[in-house]
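In the laboratory, one determines a bound structure by crystallizing the protein with its ligand and collecting diffraction data. In a computational setting the workflow is compressed into a single prediction: the sequence and the ligand go in, and a structural description comes out. We illustrate the idea with flavin-adenine dinucleotide.
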Amino acid sequence: MNDHDVVIAGGGPTGLMLAAELALANVDVVIVESRPSQDLDGRKAGGLHARTTELLDQRGVAERFVAAGQRYPFVGFAGTALDISDLPTRHNYMLALWQVEFERIMATWLDELEVPIVRSREVTEFAQHSEGIDVKLSDGSSFAAEYLVGCDGGRSAVRKRAGIEFPGWDATSSFVMAEVEMTDRPPIGMRPEGGGIGPVKPSEPDGPYGLVLLEPHVEYADEPTAGYVSELLEATFGTDFGMHTPTRISRFTDMCRQAASYRSGRVLVAGDAAHVHGPQAGQGLNTGVQDAVNLGWKLAQVIKHNSPDNLLDTYHAERHPVGARVLQNTMAQVALTRIDDRSRALREMTLQLLALDAPRMFVAGMISGLDIRYDLDVIDGDSHPLLGRRMPDLDLEAGDGPTRVFALLCAARPVLLNLDAAGGFDPAPWSDRVTQVDATYTGEWELPLVGAVSAPSAVLIRPDGYVVWVGSLDDPALHTTIEKWFGVAH
Ligand SMILES: Cc1cc2nc3c(=O)[nH]c(=O)nc-3n(C[C@H](O)[C@H](O)[C@H](O)COP(=O)(O)OP(=O)(O)OC[C@H]3O[C@@H](n4cnc5c(N)ncnc54)[C@H](O)[C@@H]3O)c2cc1C
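The predicted complex, in C-alpha cell form:
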C-alpha cells in the first residue's frame, strides 16, 4: 500500500501547479519542500505570460493572480517591448507579479485543495521497482509512491540521481540582482550591456530600487554581498548613489541546459529541473507551470489505470521541444543585447523587423506561449488548424445558459464540445472521464498567429486545454481518439 500516489520534490511554482492539477484529478499527492516557508530570498520571476494566465483561468483561479498584479499590454524581447494587445485572448497582457506573490497565492489554493506540504525536508534518495518507488527524505523518513516528480529546480537532486543528462551551453555573462534604498536618485532605465535600475513598485518612484548589474566575470565562488553590490554600482556608474538597506541579493547567468529526457521510469522532471536558461523575456516560471499542466492529467490517467503508462512519454514528446525553443530564444536575446558593433547592427535590423506586424506576432506568440502546437502524430497539411493548439475561450450558449470554454475546463477533465445538432455519438462509456457539452457559438474563430479558421462542428479538448480531435460526432476517429488519450470505454 502506497503512502501517496505521487511525491513531488520541490514546492516552487512548478511543484505547486502540478500538485493542484493532481489534487483536482483526485490523485493523492504530497509535496516535499526544503524551504521552511513559501518565502523567497530573491524576487526571481516577475510575471505571468498570457498562456499561463489562461491556464489559471481554465482552473477558475486566474482572478486571484490578476487582482494581485499589474497588466502591461506588451512582452519584452531583447530589451524591447512588443505590443500584444491585438492577440486574440482575454489575457492579452503580461501580468507583472513577483514570484513570491505567485507562490503565496498558489499555496493558499493548495490549502483549499488540502494538499499536504512537508516542509524543511529534502528528497535525498529513491529506489524504483516494478510496483512503485520508495522515496527517502533528509530526516530519515520515507514515502512509498507510484511516481516521483522532480520539481526541485535547476540543481535538481532528483534529475541527477535518476541519471538524466543535462546537456547545454555554459554561461557567457553573469548579473547580480538586488533591491536597495538610495540617498541620491539613480538614472532609471535599461543599460546598454543589459540590466539597469528601476523602482521596485511603479507607484513608489523614490525607491526602493531594483538593480540588475552585469558582473565583470562569469564564474564566482562566493555569493554576492551588500559591499559587492556597492562596488558594482561604483564600477558601472562611478557612484553607489548612497546605497543602503539592501535586500534580496541574488545572481543569475545565461547558462542554458535541458534534461535529455523528461522521464526515467517512475521519475519525471519538470520546470527548472528540466530546463534552465537566462531570464530574458521572463519565461522560466511560465514554462515550468505549463510543464505541470501538461503532465498533471496524464499522471492522473495512468495512476487511475485509465491509460497505459506510455501516455507519460507524450509529456517529454510535447514539452521537450517547447523547452528547447525557450533555450534558443533566450540565447538569441543574449546575442542581440551584446554591445560590440556587429551585434548592435544585428539588433538594429532585428528591431526594424519587429516593427512589422508578422515578425512581432511571431515573437510575441512565442514568448506569451500562445503559439504552441503539439505534434499529435495526426497533423498533416489538411488538418484543421485547431488540432494540437490551445482551445480559444469562446462565449457559448449551453443548455444551462451562457458559459465559456475555460469555465467548462475548471474540473480539469476532458471536454467533448459539440456545437452542432445533438446525437451521433454515445459518450456514456466514458462518462466517468469525459464531459460532453452541447452548446452553440455564433462568433468568429480566431487563433493567435493563424488568424480566422473555419468553425468546427465539434472538438475534443484535453484537460490542459489543447484540442486533440476536430470533426462531427459521427466521425469514427472520435472513438479511437478518446481511447488514445483517455482510455478504453468501461
Ligand atoms: C534572478 C532570476 C530572475 C528570474 N526572472 C524570471 C522572470 O522574469 N520570469 C520567469 O518566468 N522566470 C524567471 N526566473 C526563473 C524562475 O524563477 C524559475 O524558472 C522558477 O522559479 C522555476 O520554478 P520551479 O518550481 O521549477 O523551480 P524552483 O523555483 O527553483 O523551485 C524548486 C524548489 O525545490 C526546492 N528543492 C530543491 N531541492 C529539493 C529537494 N531535494 N527536495 C525538496 N525540495 C527541494 C527548493 O527549495 C525550491 O523551492 C528568474 C530566475 C532568477 C534566478
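The chain has a mean pLDDT of 94. Keep in mind that any predicted model is a hypothesis to be tested, not a measurement.
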